[in-house]
Amino acid sequence: MPEDQNTPVPSYWLLLVGVFLLILPLGFFLVGPDRATDAERYLRVVSALGGGLIGAFIPGFLRIELPYAKAGGALAIFLVIYGVNPPGITQKLFSDLETVSSDWVAAAKEARSSGAISPRRPLPVGLSQSRSNFETAWENARTTEKTALPPQLVSEALSLTLRLYRIQEIESETKPTAFKWADIAIAYFEQINHREFLVEALLDKAALYLELSQIEHTDPDSWRAIAQAGDKVIARAFSLAEAKQKPDTLRLWSRFFYNIARPKSGNLTKDWDNTYLLASLEKMEEAYSLDPERMSNATQLARTMQKAAANPPQATDPLWTKKLRATQEKLLRTWENNEAALTSPTQRIPPLNIIAVLTLNVVTREWLETPSGQSEERGTGLIREMNDVAIRAQREAITLLPSTEWEEDYDFDMYYDLARMQGVACRITSDAGLQRPEAFCNEAFKNFAIAKKRATSIQLNASRQAMISDPIAAAIPEPAKTKIANLLDDPSTD
After folding, report:
1. Distance CA 441, CA 323 (A)
2. pLDDT of 355-366, one tens digit each?
């Protein structure tokens, strides 16, 4: 017998449909807050309809009288819910955390661009309050509120939080608060399964281990733990990284290996750990091959190559001299392509300094490998390169240094490197029989004296030892070398 066409829909089905329609706006906000905002009027009607269906299932009768309508029963419930506007309430629920997060990101970016953030100064009061507001809102928010936020905003807010704590905890051997927020960021992006921002969060945590690899480097047990933990984090980041993230990941990996390759004594003129140093170079060569036009890639490649070439057994291998020259040419080419866009002192100083130092190393090695019969011709070309490339770049870096927060930390290094360049130029002009080698020798002495006044006791002791162990310092000719050694040894000029 055919089913009666007038059989009513069971009431429980109306209830289920009503519940579904009532909670549908919440689902929209969880999946796509931006789309939910655009569809608020539609969702308002849907939720009111769902409430009316639920009302039809509940026994009793409701009658309302509004300025614009009179209704009873399910229609009355529809009008009440439409007037309350659940989607609007839901949107406000999520927008509070979003507003606080947006305010924090904007304040932190403005402070960073204006130079208001420094490890030597407390945070500005307004910035500190903005961060505190975000931390409180984040810690008190429900998971649904957090996951409703745009992932880009969350990534920036959490990253800026841990980065500011990283600056404030610059001298800390554990950086507890920075690590706390790094782990919060990682857990969040694991939870929402957002691969790109998870990699960014892992790189932020790896940067903390990068700093700790310097702070703890004289403690073997701490160094080993940091090396293992940091390597594990970076390896995971690389395994998850998208193609566009791989150069940054490899560059950070290279910097991490570079740091833990440093001599455990803290004296950077001593031999470095060649295994970690060459691992650093390998990672950086891969990063450069993926993005050769990025200045930071060329700079880090040059720095790593320069140090690897100076370390035994590479220090006496002519093949590594050729590698140095090839790397210098890449660096100069990348600098030429990027220079116009690098306008601030903090953008220009690192590449200028490594251009100068790498050129110094290339010129010194090529001069020492020059056959005796070619000294005058070869010397003329190398002196021109030392003047026009190395010394010019180093002088510009020195003039820019006072405009940055780096002056107190790096003024010794800058003048010391300039003096070494002039000392080698003195050697080449003297050996090649070129004119006025004493001019370079006098400039070298003058800048060694300036460097000494700015040196810490550790830097001063290292520079004294370098007059014997450093091939570049050792290349300075007599009597200039003895005069400089006496200057560094003379306590009356400290």
Report:
1. 29
2. 999 999 999 999
CA-atom Rg of the chain in angstroms: 33
pLDDT in tens, 105-119: 999 998 888 777 777
Burial profile 334-365: b = 16 or more Cβ within 10 angstroms, e = fewer: bbeebeeebeebebbbbbbbbbbbbbbbbbbb
Burial (CB count <10 Å: 0-12, 13-18, 19+), residue 41: exposed
Handedness of CA 450, 452, 458, 464 (dihedral sign): positive
CA dihedral 243, 244, 249, 252 (to 10 degrees): 150
Question: Both tokens of residue 174?
Answer: 């554990």
Residue 372 pLDDT: 75
**Can you list the residues of the chain whose pLDDT is less than 50?**
1-4, 9, 34, 93-95
Q: Is 441 exposed, middle or buried (0-12, 13-18, 19+ CB in 10 A)?
A: buried
At 318-339, the pLDDT tens digits run 999 999 999 999 999 999 999 9
Three-state DSSP at 77 gives helix
- C-alpha 136/C-alpha 478 separation (Å) is 66
- CB atoms < 10 A from the CB of 80, how many? 17
- DSSP helix/strand/coil, 25: helix
CB 322 within 8 A of CB 335: no
Q: Are 147 and 192 in contact, with CB atoms under 8 Å apart?
A: yes
What is the rounded CA–CA span in Å between residue 454 and residue 408?
Answer: 8
DSSP 406: T
